[in-house]
Specification:
Blueprint (H helix, E strand, L loop, with lengths): L5 H10 L8 H26 L2 H19 L6 E5 L6 H8 L12 H8 L5 E9 L3 E8 L4 E5 L2 E5 L5 E7 L11 E4 L7 H8 L3 H4 L2 E7 L3 E6 L4 E3 L5 H14 L7 E5 L8 E4 L10
Parallel strand pairs: 1-3, 4-7, 7-8, 10-11
Antiparallel strand pairs: 2-3, 4-5, 5-6, 8-9, 9-10, 11-12
């Protein structure tokens, strides 16, 4: 029997695999599972960022919409309520829907937002009436005044928003000639507050034919009998209410006056006589 040298025994002992600890096998399985999850997440992220899932989903949705249209769920009629001034062709272009399109594929929120970008449209709503009809309801802006800039006019609504520009006296529609006129560079920015003020005294408001925004701080009103009313910068509401009371109870605006200056309230009202009118006017 061959004797093994001491050096060989020591070499075999050095190369011998040490026993594995108890935690080794569970850690190996856990590491493998974690690696699989990381690979799966990485592949999912790649598919998402590369548009693979989006393309597949888009193709599936398009196919389903096409099937629904073939089954009768397609746009056949479009009903519009509330359209007075909005152009029909402009409305169709903004709506972006064609006869035969899958009705379930119409993005009503996006279409509503597009319609509300139209010049005359203040609010819009769109609903489906299955299987094949769209119902559109429009609330159009109401022209409330003309904003004069030199010889040009623009139509504005109750908020001061410009609806239509580039009008002059020659091509001004008859319906617009009855609107009151606002003058002043920033007049539309203050128009909503003015209209709210005037509406508190309806009878007197009907006599206001024009208003001028003065010094970027206050209004001068021009009445139908060529009387100018100078409202104060501070608390124009009280001044307007006082003028309405005196016009109703004392006949102030029936006198031979040209200017009613309310800027000095509450101390006094300053009147300027109209030299062209007889002094006994209204007597």
């Amino acid at each position: 029997m061959r004797r093994v040298s001491l050096a060989a025994r020591r070499a075999r002992q050095f190369l011998r695999r040490p026993p594995r600890p108890r935690w080794f096998r569970p850690a190996l399985y856990a590491g493998g599972g974690g690696l699989g999850l990381l690979l799966g997440a990485g592949l999912g992220l790649w598919a998402t960022t590369s548009g693979l899932f989006a393309a597949a989903e888009g193709a599936l949705v398009s196919r389903l919409l096409a099937v629904s249209a073939d089954a009768g769920f397609a746009v056949r009629q479009v009903y519009v309520d509330g359209r007075v001034r909005t152009g029909l062709e402009e409305l169709r272009a903004r709506l972006g829907v064609q006869i035969g399109d899958p009705i379930l594929g119409v993005d009503t929120d996006a279409a509503r937002a597009r319609l509300e970008q139209l010049t005359w449209v203040d609010q819009a709503s769109i609903g489906r009436m299955l299987p094949g009809s769209l119902y559109i309801r429009l609330v159009e802006r109401q022209p409330l005044a003309l904003w004069q800039q030199g010889r040009q006019f623009a139509v504005i609504d109750r908020t001061g928003a410009v609806i239509e520009r580039g009008l002059d006296e020659a091509n001004l529609p008859e319906a617009y000639r009855r609107l009151r006129v606002l003058v002043g560079e920033d007049a539309p920015d203050h128009a909503e507050a003015l209209f709210a003020l005037l509406s508190t005294e309806p009878a007197l408001s009907e006599r206001v034919v024009a208003a001028t925004w003065v010094g970027d701080r206050r209004w001068n009103l021009h009445l139908d009998d060529q009387v100018d009313v100078m409202l104060p910068e501070q608390d124009p509401q009280t001044a307007w209410r006082l003028l309405a009371t005196k016009a109703r109870d004392e006949g102030l605006l029936e006198r031979a006056i040209k200017v009613v200056d309310l800027r000095l309230l509450p101390e006094r009202i300053r009147l300027q006589l109209d030299p062209r009118v007889p002094a006994n006017r209204g007597a």
